[in-house]
Amino acid sequence: MELNPTRKSIVVGITGASGSIYGVKLIETLLGIGYNVHLVITNAGWRVIKEELGWNTTDRDKVLAEKFGGRPGSYIYHNNSDIGATIASGSYLVEGMIVMPCSMGTLSAIANGTSDNLLTRAADVMMKERRPLVLVPRETPLHAIHLENMLKLARLGIVMIPAMPAFYFGPKSIDDLVSFLVGKVLDNLRIEHALFTRWGDQNEQQRE
Predict the structure, then answer these.
(1) Which of 86, 108, 137, 140 has its CA at 20 to 30 Å from residue 161's CA atom?
(2) What are the residue boundaries of the Flavoprotein domain, all occurrences included (predicted)?
(3) 69 is in an annotated binding site
(4) Is 183 a known ligand-binding residue?
(5) Cα–Cα distance between 187 and 207 in angstroms, integer?
(6) Residue 130 annotated as binding?
(7) Beta-carbon contacts of residue 17 (< 8 Å; ≥ 6 apart)
């Protein structure tokens, strides 16, 4: 799909951690508000999408068009092995990058500068160019190496938003929980949305 050069662009990575529904909701939301999305999905990410969401991933371009086409924004799918893609270069401008969900393997590669595929290279570009990078780790329990890698990245200014949905807003469905977490990610990038009711807004509605 051809991207609109007048719109803001953001990179979204989906890895093999459980929780591919988060990444899908994020892409739907960004496209719905008119963003250009550069999408990278690891091979393990594709497998989890198939297992958790039941997508037919045999023809990846076709299934992406079915799921994400027809929205105000545009997307382009980059093969994770394409290290010559636009987003592998710091001279290509994007607003930032989100990896949602982020496996511990991908998090470790990013923390240690192992740019051996497009997703980890794109993340490395975000860091060296001082652009926003948000990681959504999804693993439990966490051992010391997981925590040390997250601490290393946090000290470099990388935002960690673990997949920990809240319950204070009274969620009624899985989609409510997913939307909350996606909304927290978008908040961090100062992207406006209406995915959940905020704490102050909720109190105001109750008083009314």
Answers:
(1) 86
(2) 8-189
(3) no
(4) no
(5) 25
(6) no
(7) 48, 101, 102, 103, 104, 106, 137, 138, 139
CB under 8 Å, gap of 24 or more: what pairs does 53-62 form?
53/20, 53/21, 53/24
199 by Cβ neighbours in 10 Å (0-12 / 13-18 / 19+) ranks as exposed
Q: Please check if 179 is assigned to a binding site.
A: no
Q: Is residue 153 part of a domain?
A: yes
Is 19 assigned to a binding site?
no
DSSP run (H or E) holding 183: helix 174-188
Q: Provide the number of structural domains found in the chain.
A: 1
Token pair 């990444």 is found at: 23
Instruction: Report the predicted TM-score, pTM, of the whole model to 2 decimal places.
Output: 0.94
Phi-psi domain of 80 (left: phi exceeds 0; alpha: psi -120 through 50; beta: other): alpha
120 is in an annotated binding site: no
Q: What is the CATH number of the domain that holds 116?
A: 3.40.50.1950
Q: pLDDT tens, 2-53?
A: 788 889 999 999 999 999 999 999 999 999 999 999 999 999 999 999 999 9
Residue 27 placed within a domain: yes
Q: What's the pLDDT band for 59 if we cut at 50, 70, 90? A: very high
Residue 29 marked ligand-binding: no
Residue 18 annotated as part of some ligand binding site: yes
Tell whether residue 104 is among the known ligand binding residues: yes
42 is in an annotated binding site: yes
